[in-house]
Amino acid sequence: MRISDSIFNTSYLSNLNTIKSNVTTLQNQLATGNKIQQPSDSPSGTSELLNWNSQLDQMSTYSSNIDSATSFVADTTNTMQSIQDEITTDLTQLTSVNSATVSGTDLTNYANKINQSIQTILDLANSQSDGKYVFGGTDINSAPYSLSPGNNSVGVNTDVSGSQLIRTSQNVLQKINMSGSEVFGTILSQNGNIDPTTTVGSTVSDQSSVYDTAGTKYTFKTNYTKTAADTFSMTYDIVDGSGNTILSQPPASKTFVFNSTNGTLQTVNGQAPAPIQINLPSNNIYFTFDPTGVTENSGTSSLSTSANQNMDIFNTLIAVRNNLQSGTKPTSAQIQAITDFNNRLLDNIAKAGNNTNQLSNSKTLLTNQQTQLQSMIGNVQSVDVAKTVTDLQNQQNVLQDIYHVAAMVSSNSLLNYL
């Protein structure tokens, strides 16, 4: 078969373009360090890189969440530790107060020390971490606690309940805060059982004691009235020693729906069950009512409510201070209330420590996953420099050979073949 000049020229140009394209590709790979310059270079590799880079972006967000949360939890832990140190000092002082040799002016001096401690603990309760109030619950922008104008009570300025959650992975949300309700607040936990055979219209009731900041006792009443299968209307009231309600108007009823299979509380007003904040500033009553322990199962209907404390630490210390100023030593009940708070505070410090450990473990796992992904990306995308330099040199040599052959052929004429 005779090879025409046209065939030769076409083949030559095709090979020349291929080699020049290879040289350009190799040069770009060396310049950028990337094997894949455009999707067409490797459609499957491009798809993998897009997926892996998306995962890395998510992990970067999770890592940033953990770093910020770790600082927040550390500040919370340090603040609780400072409060615990202050409470320990108070307990030591109050133990000394009960010594038989202490009286008169000495009691006034101890009252002044307790007063200073109240202010210190209040300042710590309003601590911030990076501009966020650590004990504000989900309200991180408002100071949660304040001293009344007469310095005779500490009130709650906002809803200090609620959990702050961060995402540490695609499927994991972690709680990072210790709410004011958990650390300082009074929590009434209701437990017990309601018989599902209770007839519609019947009511199951319970009551327990609550206290204002001055220690005055009130009665907290709850009623569960059945409205349909597994459904109850819950109402509550707070009455004084004479049986008169102190609520300006009855609170709206809440619809409790129980799981018909296992009897657990399923929803409250269509939402996931959660503690209810009860805040009556005009009466200086602040507490959290947690009914999530109530179940619906066959058997006798019986409810019980217990409180983690009668009075919060602030107002217990205020009562102690006022008594000392009037020449009265603290009672054993007051000392016990402060001791109980100290024990709960130690438990909360331990919980915060667990949060720190969980964050640390999540960070380690995340770092390992990021390293693995980066290695996989490198295997697909990163250039082997030594091999690429060798390939580039080979392609450039071939290109020079093509130019050389072309020069030799193009310089011949018809006389060379006669």
Brief description of this entry?
The protein has helices at residues 5-32, 43-97, 105-125, 180-183, 313-325, 332-381, 385-410, and strands at residues 128-129, 132-133, 145-147, 154-156, 165-169, 172-175, 187-194, 203-211, 217-228, 231-239, 254-258, 265-268, 276-280, 285-296, 302-307. The chain is α+β, with helices and mostly antiparallel strands. It has 3 domains: 44-184 and 312-382, f41 fragment of flagellin, N-terminal domain; 186-308, Tick-borne Encephalitis virus Glycoprotein, domain 1; 392-418, no CATH class.
How would you describe this structure to a colleague?
With 418 residues, the chain is α+β, with helices and mostly antiparallel strands. The protein folds into three domains: 44-184 and 312-382, f41 fragment of flagellin, N-terminal domain, CATH 1.20.1330.10; 186-308, Flagellar hook protein FlgE (Tick-borne Encephalitis virus Glycoprotein, domain 1); 392-418, no CATH class. Helix content is 47%, strand content 21%. It has helices at residues 5-32, 43-97, 105-125, 180-183, 313-325, 332-381, 385-410, and strands spanning 128-129, 132-133, 145-147, 154-156, 165-169, 172-175, 187-194, 203-211, 217-228, 231-239, 254-258, 265-268, 276-280, 285-296, 302-307. The strands form five sheets. It has a five-stranded antiparallel β-sheet, with no helix packed on it. A four-stranded mixed β-sheet has the order 13-14-7-15, with no helix packed on it. A two-stranded antiparallel ribbon has the order 1-2. A hairpin with a 2-residue loop joins strand 9 and strand 10. The two termini are 21 Å apart.
